[in-house]
Amino acid sequence: MINPIYVDNIIKTALLEDINYLDTTTDYLIDEQQENSARFLAKSDGVLCGIDIALRVFEILQPQGFEAKVYKHDGDKLKKGDIIAEIHGKTRALLKGERTALNLIQHMSGIATATNRAVEIIKGTKASIADTRKTLPGMRPLQKYAVTVGGGRNHRYNLSDAAMLKDNHVDAGGGIKNAVAKLKSKLGHMTKIELEVRNLDELRQALEAKVDVIMLDNMSCEMMREAVEITNGQAMLEASGGITDETLRDIAETGVDIISMGAITHSVTAFDISLKISD
Q1: Mean pLDDT computed over every residue of the chain
Q2: Catalytic residue among 43, 99, 198, 225
């Protein structure tokens, strides 16, 4: 799902950020021909994501002779103490790539784990978990991939993917009716329109304007249930705003189609994985 050119570019950017012209410790301490083995170890329970990208760090640093045995793959459930992969290569490459590889796999696994937790909470309802554009600059493809590995769905990747009218767009565009009409006069037939609404009156206006998706922004569960009844399948409904693990189940049971959560990308805790070199 991820363009390998993008992957290599982001890894090289990270390595260049970490290594100016040499690794002062490693290059002076370790003989150029020395080789070692190492293990990726899970330090807690969760969902793995990014192992192939982590291994690619070492392949870039050592184009020939690097070896890896992978025991756990993206999407696998991890238990504390699981061996994810064993690697063997030049010791300099292992030491220079360690931090970059761990930064990537820990962050991506953290997102996959948080997403999977949300997916499990709403299991049995019609709703699905989706991400947002609240991602780190330059990291969006990796973060959105991690969401899918955790069982979630991707919202639009960028501003070109769909027309999405937030409250500021509506206020600046002369109201719901005018804004939607103007967009429809210019959009291609393949482009969908989503509209954010703040109350049930705006919901009714959105339905009259015949938008494809309606975002219910920071609504109470009671109001969302009423919105589902009023909409009656005329548009897809997305719940958004201030959603937490504690409120997820109640929101899903209102009957909405999508629950979008910025927290699964912008506020995740890195999943604890270590890379230990053998003696």
Answers
A1: 96
A2: 99
> What pLDDT score was predicted for residue 9?
97
Tell me: the pLDDT tens digits for 95-122?
999 999 999 999 999 999 999 999 999 9
Q: Is 99 a catalytic residue?
A: yes
Which residues are CB-neighbours of 243 under 8 A, at least 6 positions away?
251, 259, 260, 261, 263
Q: Is the pLDDT of residue 279 over 90?
A: no
Residues 6+ apart with CB under 8 A from 226: 200
Q: Are the C-beta atoms of 47 and 77 separated by less than 8 Å?
A: yes
Respond yes or no: is residue 196 known to be catalytic: yes
**Does residue 166 carry a catalytic annotation?**
yes
Can you tell me the distance from the alpha carbon of 125 to that of 58, in angstroms, rounded to the nearest whole number?
A: 42
The residue among 47, 46, 41 whose CA lies nearest residue 101 is 41
Catalytically annotated residue among 12, 80, 123, 166: 166
Set 8, 217, 253, 272: catalytic member: 217
Q: Tell me which residue of 95, 16, 108, 93 sits closest to 53, measured CA to CA.
A: 108
**Exposure pattern of 76-86 as b/e (b: 16+ CB <10 Å)?**
bebeeebebbe
**Known active-site residue 134:** yes
**Catalytic residue from among 74, 98, 196, 257:** 196
- pLDDT per residue as tens digits for the range 29-73: 999 999 999 999 999 999 999 999 999 999 999 999 999 999 999
Mean pLDDT of 73-96: 98
Residue 97, classed as helix, strand or coil, is helix
Catalytic: which of 39, 134, 153, 225? 134
Active site residue 123: no
